[in-house]
Design goal:
The structure holds two protein chains of two kinds. By secondary structure, chain A is mainly alpha-helical. Chain A has helices spanning 3-14, 17-36, 43-60, 65-87, 92-111, 116-119, 130-134, 151-175, 178-188, 190-195, 200-226, 236-249, 256-280, 291-312, 321-325; strands spanning 125-126, 142-143, 148-149, 228-229. Chain A has 15 helices and four strands. In chain A, the strands form two sheets. A two-stranded antiparallel ribbon of chain A has the order 1-4. In chain A, a hairpin with a 4-residue loop joins strand 2 (142-143) and strand 3 (148-149). The longest helix of chain A has 27 residues, at 200-226. The radius of gyration of chain A is 21 Å and the shape is globular. Chain B folds into two domains: 2-120 and 202-318, Rossmann fold (3-Layer(aba) Sandwich); 124-181, no CATH class. Chain B has helices at 10-19, 73-80, 103-108, 126-133, 142-145, 152-168, 184-197, 214-229, 241-247, 265-270, 272-279, 294-297, 316-319; strands spanning 33-44, 47-58, 62-66, 88-93, 96-97, 111-113, 202-206, 233-237, 250-255, 258-263. Chain B has a six-stranded mixed β-sheet with strand order 6-7-8-3-9-10, sandwiched between helices. Classes of the chains: A mainly alpha, B alpha/beta. The complex binds adenosine-5'-diphosphate and magnesium ion. The site of magnesium ion has 3 residues of chain B, from helix 2. Chain A: It is a multi-pass membrane protein. Chain A: Pfam families: BPD_transp_2 (PF02653). Chain A: The chain crosses the membrane at residues 6-31, 38-59, 65-85, 154-175, 207-228, 240-256, 263-284, 296-312. Chain A: It is found in: Cell membrane.
Chain lengths: 329, 329
């Protein structure tokens, strides 16, 4: 058994690329779902539009990196308006239906043959991240017995965690302000908020844009970290993992998404490293499980763990049990 | 109650005097109307839920809107406050047309309503429920919310006013509790106190006493009377005739969507049309007293005759007007 490797990959995953990407995506989703009560099932589309906006600008049209970022952010705002304006006046479930459909439309557009001249079709796009890595200040990698990161990884992680910190700061500032109070009140009962003279529709649009923009930061980091984008990354299961993470950390908690993402990726990486090792040393006989099956079993085990957690701690890691129980009004 | 004596309650005396010469008929003109409604019609499919020809609400008075269940009182409230759109009709508040004005703008103009089914914001604290009601908060703007210095001072003022109201409504001990943990009656109190945070000119209370225990009812009644002394106009829906008689200066009776009678409480309760509307033309008794929670708290119920497919209002027995007695002694 190679415990060193198992522990080092697990430790690295605690602060790794996936953790950052999902944390950012879930911070945005937490604004939608946790604070405002908006059932956005298309968060993956916000990340996708950001990543493709940047990559198409840089790779397809040969424009500068920062313009690509602006195009990505602009695309996210437009997507939020497109989704929000027709649906946010309707009942909550309409947003869920529209967003899940929109996310699939966006993904299918990315991979469509007709648009492949610009989007690269199902292969996606590469070679848009050079300017980003040119800014890398790190000259030597980290190589300890426990963890090791290349200079490129260090740069991505640094930028990623700075973005996480900024996103958290924004959410923290907003949610302790009167603006955040209106947002949370809308989650509870929007008619009551309306009766007190607040323009509920406008606040919901603002929340949709904010959560989309915060989540889209994850889309940029993901694309830059992998130096490639690929349409099928932005499927519905991407969004479902984000929901898992939001609920795991505790909805409407500032740090919930980050801690949720860390736990989720640590567990998944640990089990996915542990099982094949156990099989290869014969601790798990191949009649029960082969190395090929280990990946799927890993997801099953994490799923069971999450179910247990939600049964015994429905409020998530940070949530307040009393508060969650009030839901059953 | 002592507060009722004319020396202690100048606003009541003024309201009574102002209404003394108003003709006792549906649609009667008032000397100083704050709200004037003309030909408002709302149909649900084949059912005409509201069909109000003309009605005026006297400024500074407490007007009760009564009528059997299904008479259209709540629908009428919804229409006036922008929560529902009429098929036709117009109305003016302080001389300004209100039809087509969004609910939140109606509230900002000074007409604030509460709901028959209480809308407390359960997972917000009691004090945050209150703070939410204040209008013109600078920190409710997205960008200003990010800089606490811009709204901290105003937040203190808002909190001070909220605390005063909480004390007045005897909810100060619950200040930090989640609104969802309050009893039904306390939530009614909170909703009313919260509406007052808007600084309305006119409050519209939809069954404010429903589900409130008798001890709290007395204090609620006191609060409503207090609003009149503060110069506010009150329009409220109530089923319990003793309470209506106790606090209202004027009564408007609705039946099957139309205003069928107007007058002082005693006059209206002696009116044959009103008794007919409540009991059905044949006085054949009450049906299903469980149909409405108000039935639980209404005054002593008339003996409930077994329902025999009569067209009477569902809680006719529990809500029937009783002849005036022990009054004005
Ligand atoms: N959204 C709706 N759709 C269809 N019918 C409705 C709706 N709201 C109210 N009604 C009907 O309109 C009538 C008046 O209801 P309502 O205004 O709630 O009466 P009240 O408040 O006087 O008890 C009732 O017959 C009710 O069933
Ligand atoms: Mg009603």
């Amino acid at each position: 058994m190679n415990w060193d490797v198992i522990f080092s990959v697990s430790l690295e995953s605690l602060i790794g690329l996936s953790t950052i990407v999902y944390a950012l995506a879930a911070i945005g989703l937490n604004v939608h779902f946790g604070y405002t009560g908006l059932l956005n099932f298309g968060q993956s589309a916000f990340l996708g539009v950001a990543a493709y906006g940047m990559a198409i600008t840089v790779t397809t049209f040969g424009q500068p990196f920062w313009l690509g970022i602006l195009v990505g952010l602009g695309g996210v705002v437009v997507l939020a308006l497109l989704l929000g304006i027709p649906t946010l006046r309707l009942r909550a479930d309409y947003l869920a239906i529209v967003t899940i459909a929109a996310a699939e439309i966006v993904r299918l557009l990315f991979r469509s043959v007709t648009l492949s001249e610009w989007t690269g079709g199902s292969d996606g796009l590469q070679q848009f991240s050079q300017s980003f890595y040119d800014m890398n200040p790190y000259s030597s990698p980290i190589e300890t017995t426990l963890i090791s990161f290349s200079t490129r990884e260090l740069w991505v992680l640094t930028v990623g965690w700075v973005l996480v910190a900024i996103a958290l700061l924004i959410v923290w500032l907003l949610m302790r302000s009167p603006w955040g109070r209106v947002i949370k009140a809308i989650r509870e009962d929007e008619d009551a908020v309306r009766s007190l003279g607040k323009n509920v529709f406008s606040y919901k649009i603002q929340a949709l844009i904010l959560g989309g923009v915060l989540g889209s930061l994850g889309g940029f980091v993901f694309a830059l970290g992998l130096a490639a984008i690929q349409p099928d990354t932005y499927g519905t299961e991407f969004t479902f993992y984000m929901y898992t993470i939001v609920i795991l950390g505790g909805a409407a908690r500032v740090f919930g998404p980050v801690v949720g993402s860390m736990i989720f990726w640590f567990l998944l990486t640990f089990i996915n490293a542990l099982l094949p090792s156990l099989i290869s040393v014969g601790a798990i006989p191949s009649s029960i499980m082969t190395t090929n099956q280990a990946g799927a079993v890993g997801y099953i085990l994490v799923g069971i763990g999450l179910m247990l957690l939600l049964i015994f701690r429905p409020q998530g890691i940070f949530g307040d049990k009393k508060e969650v129980m009030l839901d059953a009004r | 109650m002592p507060a009722d004596q004319q020396t202690d309650a100048p606003a009541k005396a003024r309201a009574v005097a102002a209404l003394a010469d108003v003709p006792r008929e549906p649609g009667a003109k008032k000397p100083d109307p704050i709200l004037v409604v003309d030909k408002v019609v709302r149909r649900f499919g084949g059912l005409t839920a509201v069909n109000v020809g003309h009605v005026e609400i006297q400024r500074g008075a407490i007007t009760a809107l009564i009528g059997p269940n299904g008479a259209g009182k709540t629908t009428f409230f919804n229409l006036l406050t922008g929560f529902d759109k009429p098929d036709e009709g117009n109305w003016a508040f302080n001389g300004q047309p209100l039809q087509g004005v969004a609910a939140h703008k109606v509230a900002r103009r000074g007409m604030v309503r509460t709901f028959q089914l209480t809308k407390s914001l359960n997972r917000l604290s009691v004090i945050d429920n209150m703070r939410l009601g204040a209008t013109g908060q600078r920190g409710e703007n997205f960008w200003r919310a990010l800089i606490p210095g811009l709204w901290k001072k105003q937040e203190q003022d808002v909190t001070e006013r909220a605390d005063e109201l909480l004390a007045r409504f005897k909810l100060d001990a619950k200040r930090e509790d989640f609104a969802g943990s309050l009893s039904g009656g306390q939530r009614k109190l909170l909703e009313m106190a919260r509406a007052l945070m808007v600084n309305p000119e006119m409050v519209m209370l939809d069954e404010p006493m429903a589900g409130v225990n008798p001890a709290l009812t007395q204090s609620l009644l006191g609060h409503v009377k207090g609003l009149r002394e503060l110069g506010m106009t009150v329009l409220f829906v109530e089923h319990d005739m003793d309470m209506v008689r106790d606090i209202s200066d004027w009564v408007i009776v609705m039946g099957q969507g139309e205003v069928i009678a107007e007058g002082t409480p005693d006059e209206v309760m002696a009116d044959q049309r009103v008794i007919d509307a409540y009991l059905g033309a044949h006085h054949d008794g009450a049906a299903d007293p469980d149909a409405d929670p108000a039935a639980d708290t209404a005054g002593p119920a008339a003996p409930a005759a077994p329902a025999a497919g009569e067209p009477a209002g569902p809680t006719a027995g529990a809500t029937a007007p009783k002849p005036a007695k022990e009054d004005g002694q």
